Amino acid sequence: PPRQLRPPGALTPDEAYLTACTGCNACVAACPPQAIRLVSAPGDPARRIAVLEVAVVPCLLCAGLPCVEACPDGALVAPASPRQVRLGVAQVDPRHCRTFRGEGCDVCWRVCPLADEAIRMIGRRPVVLPAACTGCGQCEAACPEGPAAITVVPERDLIPGLRIPRAWGPAG
User: Fold this and answer.
1) Torsion 20-130-84-7 (CA) sign
2) For residue 24, with 0-12 CB atoms within 10 Å meaning exposed, 13-18 middle and 19 or more buried, which class applies?
3) 165, β-bridge pairs
4) How far apart are CA 159 and CA 172, in angstroms?
5) Residues 6+ apart with CB under 8 A from 127
6) 86 Cβ contact list (under 8 Å, min separation 6)
7) CA 20 to 30 Å from 72, out of 65, 93, 113, 150?
8) Where are the alpha helices (DSSP H) in the chain?
9) Are 10 and 158 in contact (CB under 8 A)?
10) Other C-beta atoms lying within 10 Å of the C-beta of residue 107
11) What is the per-residue pLDDT for 2?
């Protein structure tokens, strides 16, 4: 299945969001780029929840976050600003990123709403700064190599605080 992220302002931990989201469709209707859609809830195919698939349509971090404002169930809570949205963290795969083959490209950096904060070009290669990355997916959606070169790892799959993939952490 496609990688699914929670909408902006989704309650954490993930279980809180999954419990609170009723699949009412209000955030879907309020999303200007139509990035949010309803899918079956994990473990309960009859229940619907709101998700983002940023490889298809990224979150634009719209002013005022209308998706959050529309949520009647409290599953989405307004962050202090769009800069505080935490959907996940973009990860660059050097095996597929053009810059690691010596080709010039800075598309991910150019489309990032927080360029030089969330993603920087260092030595002509993109470097994601996890503390600032919102996980909006604009870099992933715009990358000419697609999600093979840059992919957003959902927040629920990151080590809290460090915001790096759990798979990178110590074996448990």
Assistant:
1) negative
2) middle
3) 158
4) 12
5) 92, 119, 120, 121
6) 79, 134, 135, 155, 163
7) 113
8) 14-20, 26-30, 66-70, 107-111, 138-142
9) no
10) 17
11) 66
**Tens-digit pLDDT profile for residues 19-29:** 999 999 999 99
Task: Determine the length of the chain.
Answer: 172
**What does each C-alpha distance from 2 to 20, 23, 152 come to in angstroms?**
22, 19, 12
Tokens read off for 12 = 């954490």
Residue reference for tokens 């053009």: 98
CA atoms within 13 A on the CB side of 79: 18
The full DSSP string for 107-153 is: HHHHH-TTBTTTEEEETTEEEE-TTT-----HHHHH-TTGGGTEEEE
Tell me which amino acid residue 139 is: C
Task: Provide the residue type at 109 as one letter.
Answer: W
Give the pLDDT score at 172: 45
Q: What is the pLDDT of residues 119-149, one digit of tens each?
A: 999 999 999 999 999 999 999 999 999 889 9
Residue 7 is classified by DSSP as P
Q: How many C-beta atoms lie closer than 10 Å to residue 33's C-beta?
A: 10
